[in-house]
Amino acid sequence: MNDKFQPVKAADIPLGIPLAWSVYDKLGHLLLREGVMVESQRQLDGLIENGLFRERRSVHVAKKTAVAESDEAKSKSPDKTEDLLSVKLVIGDTIQLQDFSSDKQRYFVKLIGFMNKKSVLVSHPRQDEKLSFIKEGHGFMVRGFAGTKTFEFSSNVISVCLTPYPYLHLAFPPQVKTTCMRKAVRIKLKLVCSVESPVLGGKLPAIIEDMSISGARIQAGKSFGQVGDTVSVSLRMQVAGETQVFLVSSVIRNVHVENDSKSGEKIVMHGMEFVQTLSVDLTLLQNFIYKSMLEN
């Protein structure tokens, strides 16, 4: 074996727990892929007898980092400029206004409407439930999402209206910068969920570490299945100020064990792919993810 590999001992492979790394024979042939479980002592003895090896940590981490960077790079397409009307904004969408001060104060407002070449109407920014002081001429960088696109343009306040309710007229932009976001875009979060699995015969509490509209990375105290198993994931999300329940069938795509950075205890991470998702659920999930991205 070359110096990219290191020997694996029997004590390194706990029974009934998904492998944290792939194992190879002395010729470098893959025997067990990461996430597979060794079920019995007899199976383990047979593997160890002929010698087992794994990639050294530096190689293993480098590969994971390269994959992550590749996924992130693929999640975006090059920026381009478009007319605002072609972005297909939806009335009621959340938009971020960021001013050009040194503090870069950010506000989240609702799109009320727009008139081509005239103005864009948004709700008046608030802070601590009180109207923020905004005057005509105040400049903002405006950002938001529309479908699978992000958009961005600079504008300034051309009118502040207080009746029949507080709202602003922003100058209509000649062009906006857009970026296409593919479904692989993921957000990091700590979101409590429950997983129902035939293996468990019930529900297991878990935590979603990151999520996209196509899947999630879920942490649990124990494994709730093997690669290829189908489970049901349920969670609650705040969308447009309301609590929405999201229930989706999911397939386990990878499983591995990690040590908790704080407690040092072993935790099991599951890579999940969402399947059979209703269009209404996809819309809720997309809104939740995009709102979270705006806030961060």
What would your notes on this structure say?
The structure is a single chain. With 296 residues, the protein is mainly β. The protein folds into 3 domains: 5-61, no CATH class; 80-180, Electron Transport, Fmn-binding Protein, Chain A (Pnp Oxidase, Chain A, Roll); 187-295, Thrombin, subunit H, CATH 2.40.10.220. Helix content is 15%, strand content 46%. The protein has a 6-stranded antiparallel barrel with strand order 6-7-8-13-12-11. It has a 6-stranded antiparallel barrel with strand order 15-16-17-20-19-18. It has a two-stranded antiparallel ribbon with strand order 1-4. A hairpin with a 6-residue loop joins strand 6 (94-99) and strand 7. The longest helix is centred in the N-terminal third of the chain and has 18 residues, at 57-74. It is elongated, with a radius of gyration of 25 Å. The chain starts with a strand and ends with a helix. Residues 58-76 have low confidence and may be disordered.
